[in-house]
Amino acid sequence: MRVARSTMTFQRYLVLAVITVTASCGDTFLARGMKSMGPVSLAHPAELIHAIFSPWVAMGIVLLIGFFASYLTALSWADLTYVLPASSLGYVIMTLLAKFWLGERVSPMRWLGVVFITAGVGFVTRGPSYTDHSAGEPANGQSEVEAAEEVRQ
Amino acid sequence: MSPAIVGTAAMITAVVVTATAGDILTASAMRQVGDLDVIRQRSGIVGAAVAVVTNGRFGVGVICLALSFFSLLFAFSHRDLSLIGPAATSLTFVTNALAAKFFLRENVDHRRWTAAIFVCIGVALLAF
Does residue B2 sit at the A interface (CB-CB below 8 Å)? Predict the structure, then answer.
């Protein structure tokens, strides 16, 4: 039997916030570092190793390691179909950083995209976060059908 | 259908399939491992890290995510970032919802489908 329930606490919402912030800031820092380095040729892959030691790229990598650790933590107590949309506010943060920090132009269509993502996050975070496969499982090893039959009788 | 369109579709498919396989396998691995908050309280942060990295599904999942990353880089070197990035990312939201329903047996109800589709449309709009 599958039972959807909420496993969220204030601390766990903070983990989702960490996923959102580290993913978006990590990607933005990498982009900032790689832009300042100029184009890297595939003929000279050693330049990529050099890029790792530039401050922006190094900070980006540290943030992305933090992202992966918190993402795995979240997957241990919430469903993938909850964590992915709930942490997609990162795209909104990335758009805001692109506009106000990197000075990029953000078109009305991109703002509409931000609205859609925010609405999607709103939908998923108001529902249950975890599908519990063990809830209501019969202890004596009988199947779900057998258990349902027993309840009906 | 022109070879360019077939090539673009093949590249996007490779990114989406490997990313979905990676996400499903890592999510499945974390289900097997159990609640990391509980493991960390019992065995410390090192114990939690060991529990994760010694899980076989986690290893295969990380390989799939690495393959997805390199297929994305390959696609970027042949097609525009503004096409490949949003197309691959937004499609992955929908394929993940489908795969999570069938492989992880997650309770993907109307609310989660709506969220996945809204985020998918939103990410696609970020390309414009």
Answer: no
Subunit contact A124:B115, Cβ cutoff 8 A = yes
Contacts of A30 (CB under 8 A, 6+ apart): A56, A57, A60, A61, A64
Task: Dig out the tokens for A76 from the structure.
Answer: 């241990």
Compare CB distances from B37 to A77, A131, A133 and report the shortest one's residue: A77
Looking at per-residue confidence, does A132 or B25 come out higher? Answer: B25
DSSP assignment of B21-44 equals: HHHHHHHHHHHHH--HHHHHHHHH
Provide CB contacts within 8 A for A142, sequence distance 6+: A150
Residue with tokens 């132009």, as numbered in its chain:
A105
> ipTM value of the model?
0.85
pLDDT for A139 beyond 60: no
Asked if the model's pLDDT at residue B55 lies above 90, the reply is yes
**For A93-129, what is each residue's pLDDT tens digit?**
888 887 888 787 888 998 999 899 888 888 888 888 8
User: H helices of chain A, where?
Assistant: 10-37, 46-52, 55-75, 80-86, 89-100, 108-125, 144-152
Residue of A nearest to B109 (CA): A127
Across residues A42-69, what is the average pLDDT?
83
**What's the gap in Å between the CA of B126 and the closest CA on chain A?**
4
